[in-house]
Amino acid sequence: MSGPRLLGPQRMVCLTEETTEWLYLLGQEHRIVGISGYTVRPRRAREEKPKVSAFLTAKIDKILALKPDCVFGFSDLQADIAAALVRAGVQVTVFNQRSVEEIFSMLYQVAAMVGCTDAGLAWMVERRARLDAMRLEVQTLLAAGARRPRVFFEEWDEPPISAIRWVSELLGIAGGDDCFPELAVQSLGKDRIIADPAEIVRRDPEIVMGSWCGKKFRPEKVAARAGWQDVAAVRTGQLFEIKSADILQPGPAALTDGVEQMHRIVTTWMKARG
Fold this sequence. Notes:
- The chain folds into 2 domains: 12-117, Nitrogenase molybdenum iron protein domain (Rossmann fold), CATH 3.40.50; 124-272, 3-Layer(aba) Sandwich (Rossmann fold).
- It is built from 13 helices and 10 strands.
- The protein has helices at 17-25, 43-48, 60-65, 79-87, 100-113, 117-143, 165-174, 181-184, 198-203, 219-223, 232-235, 244-247, 252-272; strands at 12-14, 32-36, 51-53, 70-74, 92-95, 150-156, 161-162, 177-178, 207-210, 239-241.
- The strands form 2 sheets. The protein has a 5-stranded parallel beta sheet with strand order 3-2-1-4-5, sandwiched between helices.
- Strand 2 (32-36), helix 2 and strand 3 (51-53) form a beta-alpha-beta unit.
- Helix 6 runs parallel beside helix 13 (252-272) and helix 7 (165-174) packs across helix 13 (252-272).
- The chain is globular and about 60 Å long.
């Protein structure tokens, strides 16, 4: 009589960080045979797993040599990589999550694929409860006379690009009002470029959060921009970096460290001005 049959993919390549972190959180890191070179969460993944891709490029031959039975990718930006792997006979799943709910959906699907539905759901229930607690704290502060700050989240500096949808949604949960909500619905970075940077000044953000896609955010450069001396966030020193690995990763990081940092920054501002 044979032993229990292993279900789901056993040799997985993760072309972006979020699926790697999620599989580690689920205790399924033994299934990962290759990761993105940009992976920093969890830290030990960089030491344990071969790095086979950047974001827009991948070492196709190296991936094929690993004999994966599933490759996870993210977004239309990895479509060419996915196509090359599919032509080589590899199963590829490309997620395109842009909202908080779509992130939860992606997490559920990956958990189901590796037979960890219960563990995945338990983690997600805990996260949703924490997000609800943040909403309640914000409502309590508002009821006590505080107000929501205007927040400019800058995803890139030259040209300035505003927050993608999940960042904007998490900012709202954290207690802030996105200065450019009309751009957050645009999935592509080129469509979130602020054509006239003077418009940022006109909207007068009271907090600026920067996450320059892996490049270090420089508050002093922001404060020195032409016309920014009268921006409320500059006058009061409310310029903060949130590392891209914590908030621009559409997976566990954004739902944990990313939103927690935004919530601390925003509620500190609210309490000081309530």
